[in-house]
Specification:
Layout (H helix, E strand, L loop, with lengths): L1 H12 L6 H19 L1 H27 L4 H23 L15 E5 L2 E4 H23 L1 H11 L1 H6 L4 H23 L9 H16 L4 H19 L5 H7 L11 H4 L10 H12 L11
Helix pairs in contact: 1-8, 1-9, 1-10, 2-3, 2-4, 2-8, 2-9, 3-8, 5-6, 9-10, 9-13
């Protein structure tokens, strides 16, 4: 959900929104506040709208004002905004995590395989992600507004001549991307932890997914997110190391062995680094990403 919103904004406006994860965090906090008063389901619908409305204000009074100075100015604006949002969140909700809980209707296991339980809420998260992707693809390809958005990407002057308000289209695209980030926060804030550093936790991995999948490609973002998720999940459970391979051929790595610490490093130890290694590999072999059309 996060990478889809990031990709939508970049493919439409060419803006690398470094504050995208901040809207994810705001979506979680908005959902927490609304759920306290009106329940989780109201929060699930209203929190993304609030995040999208803030995104529209940022585009109208921030990005539009610096657009004439180029992409570097836009990047610096969103980068600075991410710090402002973190400080604002700490001022309003404090530095500690807030008790944003999973609703009772989605508590417990959906099914069990042997002794492993699959949480019902994880299945709900997957369902929402799939429905969101289908709605986004169909909306961009099958609706009039989707055609206008695609036309604004390739022929903005022609679209303006036909009577469409191109700046408003861009504002809607930016707001839509921020709303998707807010939806992700409303969904994930209670499954994980809603706290002021949650944006920093996912910010870098979003960028990795979007670059690996291909800048501007929704299908690439989906493929890369699944690929990186599977790689990390399996890597965490693999305890093999170079020392294991050497032991298989009869050589035992001891404390006196040169570089023994490196030789004893397991795949699970490298799991957090693997997405970034994949990013470097993709940039070297295929700079435009798996399914992308633009190169960095």
């Amino acid at each position: 959900m996060l990478s889809a919103g990031f990709t939508l904004i970049f493919s439409m406006m060419g803006v690398l929104n470094f504050a995208h994860a901040s809207f994810y965090m705001l979506g979680a906090y908005f959902a927490y506040e609304i759920s306290r008063r009106a329940g989780f389901w109201a929060a699930l619908g209203l929190a993304p709208l609030l995040a999208g409305a803030l995104g529209a204000l940022v585009e109208r009074f921030g990005l539009r004002a610096v657009h004439r100075f180029g992409h570097v100015a836009e990047l610096l604006l969103t980068f600075g905004l991410s710090f402002v949002v973190v400080e604002a969140v700490q001022l309003v909700w404090g530095r500690a995590a807030v008790p944003y809980a999973i609703p009772d209707a989605l508590q417990g296991a959906l099914f069990k395989v042997y002794n492993t339980s699959f949480p019902a809420y994880r299945a709900f998260m997957m369902l929402v992600a799939v429905l969101m992707m289908l709605a986004l693809v169909l909306g961009l390809r099958r609706t009039r507004f989707g055609l206008v958005i695609q036309a604004a990407l390739s022929q903005p002057q022609m679209l303006q001549a036909l009577g469409h308000d191109v700046p408003r289209v861009f504002m809607a695209a930016f707001a839509g991307g921020c709303a998707l980030a807010g939806l992700a926060g409303a969904i994930a804030g209670n499954a994980f932890i809603t706290e002021p550093h949650m944006a920093a936790t996912v910010g870098s991995i979003i960028f990795v997914i979007v670059v690996v999948g291909g800048l501007g490609s929704l299908a690439g973002a989906l493929l890369a997110s699944l690929l990186i998720g599977v790689v990390q999940t399996f890597a965490v459970s693999i305890d093999h190391s170079p020392a294991t391979l050497l032991a298989a051929v009869g050589y035992t790595v001891q404390a006196s062995t040169p570089a023994h610490a490196v030789l004893r490093t397991t795949v699970s130890d490298l799991a957090p680094v693997l997405p970034y290694l994949l990013l470097v590999l993709v940039l070297v072999v295929r700079p435009r990403g798996l399914l992308g059309t633009r190169e960095l």
